[in-house]
Amino acid sequence: MGILLSIIKTSLSDFDRNKLRTFLTSLGILIGVSSVILLVSLGVGLKNYITEQFENLGSNILIAMPGQIFGGDRQMTGGNFSGITFTEKDYLAIAKVSGIKAVAPAYVKTVSVSFEGKTEIGSYYGTTAEIFPMRNLEAGYGQIFSAGDVEKRKKIIVVGPKIAEKLFGNMGSFVGKTVKIEDQGFKVSGILKSKGGGGFGGPDFDSFLYVPYKSSPKINQEKKFSVINFQADSETVIDTVKESVTALLERSYDEEDFSVIEQTQIQETVTSIFAILNGVLVAIAAISLIVGGIGIMNIMYITVTERIREIGIRRAMGATRRNILSQFLFEAVFLSFIGGSFGLIVSLVIVFIGSRYFPLAIDLMSVVVALTVSTTIGVVFGVLPARKAALLSPVEAIRYE
């Protein structure tokens, strides 16, 4: 214990004499550790954000889309889109499939929407009333349209909050007003509450213009649909429902002309893409830890050279090679640990502040790994300088000028 205390005291004394050098030596490790932790935090935060975004858009959701979206290994292919569109007959047939809770087809088209001389670009979403409960969409102002409104071909529209804010500003007072889409007037029935999202692969339901699909024959004369959304009764029947709908559509289309995908497949694909990108960035950031370790090794060599006479005197007074090796190895590890600790503190502060603006979340395992790696770097890059000090001859060291 006495030897350990002596080593610690001597090391702290040397660090105190060379404060600036100690700081600069630890800086490389600090930057490396904070970079790794921050990038892992960003990756974890994005994963949580994506998961939350998809969960907010309904559970047990499946989507029938044109083209082959996923290959046999459930990986996204590259978009082998066939250009087919679904019919009202397809929608009604899917609605009769056992195990399906709700069906909401959609005809999607980019349109210009205008109000009192102001025009914005939005996504026309010709659909049924089932889309709202299926996607957990609620009216913030006014009300959503009903199944009866669809059948009665009412010229009404439910506006997403993003485009509503651009058009109206004070959104609540514009319920009941009329907007025009391709020279057709639609009365604003309601404005939705914000769902957020719209990034990282998720649909931006806040920017859609929801119209009963039977109410705009000029826009969608043939009652065609770009996609058909449907919701299984429970998670346990998703596979069965998927197989049934696939078999149903294969009666009208070739297998490669369409895909029936689970919403979770999109979520998993987007998450895996970000995980790969984040892993590459973390690997790049980890290089700075190696650079920091090399910096520690260089400084420790300089320290050994500066303290050769001290080493000689200590050896002459009875210090063993093991004592000298432990001394300099401890200093290298201490420098690395200090850098890692301050890197952790910097990371926590940045995550605490940045989480208000970006999806950041601290991962405990990344903290443990980063500190372990930084300490290990101190050992690895401190061994050679420490060994050099330990192997010095006491007589030659005392004579060193």
Automatic annotation (TrEMBL):
Pfam families per record: FtsX, MacB_PCD
Main location: membrane
GO molecular function, one term: transmembrane transporter activity
Family: Belongs to the ABC-4 integral membrane protein family.
Membrane-traversing stretches: 20-46, 273-304, 325-354, 360-384
InterPro entries on file: ABC3_permease_C (IPR003838), MacB_PCD (IPR025857), Macrolide_Exporter_MacB (IPR050250)
Domain MacB-like periplasmic core: 22-247
Keywords assigned by UniProt, alphabetized: Cell membrane, Membrane, Transmembrane, Transmembrane helix
PANTHER family tied to this protein: ABC TRANSPORTER PERMEASE YTRF, MEMBRANE COMPONENT OF TRANSPORTER-RELATED
Coiled-coil boundaries: none
Listed name of the protein: ABC transporter, permease protein
Origin: domain of life: Bacteria
